[in-house]
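Quick note —
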Amino acid sequence: MHTTLNYSPNFEVKKRKKNQIKFIVLHYTGMKQELEAIKKLTNINSKVSSHYLIKNNGEIVVMVPDLYEAWHAGVSSWKNFKSINKYSIGIELSNPGHDHDYKKFSKKQIQSLKKLCKFLIKKYKINKKNILGHSDIAPNRKKDPGEKFPWHYLAKFGIGKWHSILPRILINNRGKKINLTDRKIFFTNLSRIGYFTKNTNILKNDKFLNLVVVAFQRRFRQELINGKIDQECFIISKNLAKKLN
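Predicted structure written out below.
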């Protein structure tokens, strides 16, 4: 696997052990120009970095060695893990993001990502259910890598997980209301999957929980991102809760 080096000064100086690496977190750069993103990730004053950057042309840039903690996740959680930087490898994909004419990721980027993820999964024995998006671990702050990221496609290669529900069943349940009991079960399912839903009131229109629902949809129901829980979302959550435990 061919890579180039452009080291960032933004990382924790204490080396971590190989078995501490449990997750891969995927991001988009969210900046208009690729060069601008590279400058930010390698600028000591920006206080942000990632282990890898994948350019539009598919080139993989190494910015922080794997065994050092990069600053890519920020305040974050997944299941019982807090501060996901400590346990993860961060991969940025060059893309302007939602604030700057969000676009599809290039085929070359995705092919390079497949190679890189397979390499990392094997090297660090990372469970494929621990391949996450930034919005999964920080739903109140982040949207990346977003609904144009090909999670379903990558899951076919063991990179991340996907549900196993037939498209016609999904379509038939889209927009159908759920009752209060199913709403409670839905959030229990999200918690089992890994999303943080505790200390919030699932019976009210809780702002944080709405953002968790949006993050869930960006990942697993990309055709409609509206923050509303319908029967489609419910059956997807039920399927995934069984698969991911």
